[in-house]
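A quick aside before the break. I want you to see a complete sequence-to-structure record at least once, exactly as it would be stored in a machine-readable document. Don't worry about memorizing anything.
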Amino acid sequence: MGVMLFALSALSQDRLTVPAKLVSYPTMIIYNGKIMTMDDESTTLRVGTVVQAMAVRGKEIFAIGSDAEILELAGPNTERIDLKGRTVIPGIIDSHTHIHNGEVNYWISQHPEILEKYSRQFTIPGRTNEEIYKGIEIVLKENMASAPPGQWAFLQLNTNEGGSGMGQGVKFVQDHAMELADLNKLAPKNPVFMAAHPAYMINDAARKAIRDLYGFEPLVGVGEEMDENQQGGLVLYGRGLIVDGYFKDHIPELAQIIHDGLLKNAAAGITTFTSHMMGLRFMDGYRYLEAKNDLPIRFAYTHYYGFQDNPDPANFYRRLGDMAGFGSSDYLWTTGVGVGNIDDGPPMFCSSMEAPQEIKKREYCKNAPGTSQAAGIYAAILSRERVSLGHAYADKGVDYFMDAIEQAMKEQPGFTLEYIRSRRFSSDHCGFYPRPDQIPRMAKLGYYISCGGNVLDRSYPW
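That is the input. The structure line, written in tokens, reads:
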């Protein structure tokens, strides 16, 4: 009897087993089209398999094929979309975009009353240092003398004369045309942020405000770091002030703003993107959406927090270990360590190019040997992290990065070329790289570059 019951039970289970594709009906079927699967992984122009129809169940594609093969899977509630011969491509992966920044900036433009609680914005004209100096004096004396305590003054100086990064405002900041003591005297109680991209300057009240908000002072005027008149990283505080000030008590509102930005990009065909997060509360917003299963597109973020004004990034990443690919869902994960920037925009990049001394002296090699950033990058590599240079504008800084990778291979016998290639180290922008001689080296290391089409012609033909 026992054997007979077992046989009946096994027969019953066999009859209940059905193909996975019939467990439930598709949510949606699109048909009568040209669906490019892009499953050809070669670097040729071949698109791979092209099919007529595709079935979607929930958030997953589970069947592709001919119209006849796919339409027979439809159930009574399956949505059917006739493509009428149109072409469908996979979602676009944007390897460098800051959707949350852009959407928060848009929100701020629609809510000036919130912004004014935290800061006021001023444009400072002037074609000479004297004119700019006088403009700053007038603005601060007339507008900030009776400002509420803690309200920031953001001063935007001219940056466009003579090309990117060469305007009079940039020279004003970099040449110390206004000393820190003078700026402190003009605004002793209110934070001042002077911007002339890629050069920035803050006063002591701003330094204190940053310390009160983040628990540390910005790394300017410390060791090899650039002084307060040149530290491009100060831009973080301009972006983070609203995110980490106002939104720290309004996370659901921040999450909705992020959601709106993601939907706009989904409408443009972007389904996956990568970015760092300048502003600590951005992660809270993304996690809020993730917990509600409400992230419209996928976000592969770079872990920037160990370098974000951390006085000792090397020890931070030495203790962390490999985290590339780590995440709690298919919609939010980390791609590894994001350095943020190893240089800045022109003329504050790090290059091997020749230039007049007036321009060359303004270069900024943040990851040069002996710097804290170089130590942090090397520690991350040794800690088996995947490292990505989110902002790498010129060639010399990239050389320093590849030097670090190759030095790690010498120090660690287990770091074979195969292992290094599996890490897919990378950098973005390509403003003035790669040089022709860098390309074979990159190919050997399995090094990826993500280049903006709008900058490739700046250095062509190298």
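Two observations worth writing down. The radius of gyration is 27 Å. Residues 251-267 form the longest helix (17 residues). We'll return to this after the break.
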